[in-house]
Amino acid sequence: MVDDIGDEERRRFFRIEDEIYLEVTVVNEQDYKIAPQELATVQQSAFALSATFASMNHNHLPMMNSIRAGYPEIAQYLDLMNRKLDSLSQHLLEEQLPCSGENKIKVNISASGISFESDQTYSINQPLMLRLVLLPEKIGIEVFGRVVNTQAMTESDNKTQISVDLEHIRNEDQELLIKHNLNKQMQELREKSGNN
Hints:
single chain, alpha+beta, 6-stranded antiparallel beta barrel
């Protein structure tokens, strides 16, 4: 579990512009205090199943590569089983957080923080629980953080830019965020070089 990440550590994580599904819930200080215990059991939830499977797939990648080299038919079968399990976990995820246009938003995100526009108002230091779905993988991650900055956008749209430090996040979810951001950055670089 990652708690109280220092400023030095935060600077190690690069930020990207992204589009994700996001659900934000205000929590009280008592619930925020027990967030680490809640996250310790989150892998049993239907929402986090996709993240658990993604972490397992990542951890077993060297083994799968070895099987692929020696036993391609077995590897093909295991890949099929993985796709079935991924489909099931994504279906369960969408039952928990419907992936519709209204909760898909543009964010600036790193493995230690997130910034997004909201028509809700939050106070500085407000504790929040965030459920986000990374795309296109459809990986559900639940984190807890505090509002560190709010900035009014234009007067006409009544939206506020909210910045949140992610203080309570599972280590495996932080790794998934790092991997996701790296993949997005590599994709953008490939697209730029392809356009030149």
